[in-house]
Design brief:
240 residues; alpha+beta; five-stranded antiparallel beta sheet; two-stranded antiparallel ribbon; 7 strands; 43% helix; elongated
Amino acid sequence: MAIKGDLRLFHPIEVLQLIKSNRETGVLLVASPTMLAAVYFVDGDVAYATKAKKMYDFFAKKKFSTFLKTLKEKEATSLNIEDELWQEIIATLLDLTLLKEGTFSFEEASFFLGEGFIPILIPTEMLIIEATRRLNDWDVVGKKISSMELIFAKKRGWEEAAKRAELTPDEKRVLEAVDGKNTVEAIVNQTDLPPEEVTKILFGLLCAGIIGRATRKPLLKKRWLTRGLLRKLVEKIKGI
């Protein structure tokens, strides 16, 4: 899947959501007045993210040689919060998710993997949730959580996705209250958390693919017989 767009129309978190939901492998390039960034994905998860001064740097042989060497050195290890590479990736992605203008393009590619090489991957769910915690753009949240009467349900495989997201206790409370019946307002009342906090948590869970909009069954309207309709029905029965 190749996609291009404007960050004024598509929030960076929404772009990450799209790549994750389609389990894409390729490179996301982002260009804004304040930064140039590239994010490398494997099956929708992040293998690497970095910044550069010029777009050409992302394609320069030296840059890719260093990149591949770094990934392969980490192949047999686990990334943790103290890891320098982990910090670089997280910092790049969090800066990227705060952008409000610029352009993005994603192209399917696997040239950075090499034959039989799969690097250590960082769960995109975790990155989306962390970015949402820092998000203060309520217009973006309001696009997906547009009413206190909305109802959400846990998606198939939500347990694994939630584990990968590394949720906080409050986020777990909100997720527990999502049952396909509770409205957003009911979740606020049940968790006793501020409405703004609940809506932002729901936004993050939605973008991370842990929950989705619940489908409501249409209510059947009751039809009452009027006197005129009843009279016609009686007359018809008499004529049988």
